[in-house]
Amino acid sequence: MSTTTDQIQGGGTCAELPERTLDRRELRDLVNDLAAHPEEWRDQVDFPADGGRHYASLYRDAYVDVWLLCWRPEDDTGWHDHDISSGAVHVVRGALRECNPRIGGEHLETVVPAGQSFSFGPDHIHRLTGAVDESVSIHAYSPPLWRLGQYSIDGTGVMRRVSVSYADELRPMDDPITSVA
Ligand SMILES: [Fe+2]
């Protein structure tokens, strides 16, 4: 794992955000604006030679946090929610695969290519992986991530939630032998 805490200072896209929680539309506008200003994040893109994940905190205040994530196909968040936070994601390079769990059925799968974004509320449960090698995405959450729910689904379809810290690296919790995912 490789991280950096360098953050946008001064006149960046995040400088004029309102001092309150942002809704889904505002979060999507924010990640879209950031995607249009690569000078604010491009120096944070990195794919470590040791194969570890790389993510960078671009901005964090009392109301919103913004991350840049770099993805390889083996990077897998596992099933998770964002507790009380809404979020938005803009894919700026490559493509991400988003899956949503369907208990007792086939999970929903969507490939989000570069140039597209999506948003979600606190009710959203998903799993993200890199759909192609060396993909990059920008994520914004409001209120800032603090706790997340990490899920496992066992071979009988029973889903369980564990509360984790935003500082923990998300990873699959499914039993690899019995998983139906
Ligand atoms: Fe997520």
From TrEMBL:
InterPro entries: CDO_1, RmlC-like_jellyroll, RmlC_Cupin_sf. Fe cation binds at H80, H82, H126. Keywords: Dioxygenase, Iron, Metal-binding, Oxidoreductase. SUPFAM superfamilies: RmlC-like cupins. The keyword Oxidoreductase applies. This is Cysteine dioxygenase type I. The keyword Oxidoreductase applies. Belongs to the cysteine dioxygenase family. GO terms for molecular function: ferrous iron binding; oxidoreductase activity, acting on single donors with incorporation of molecular oxygen, incorporation of two atoms of oxygen.
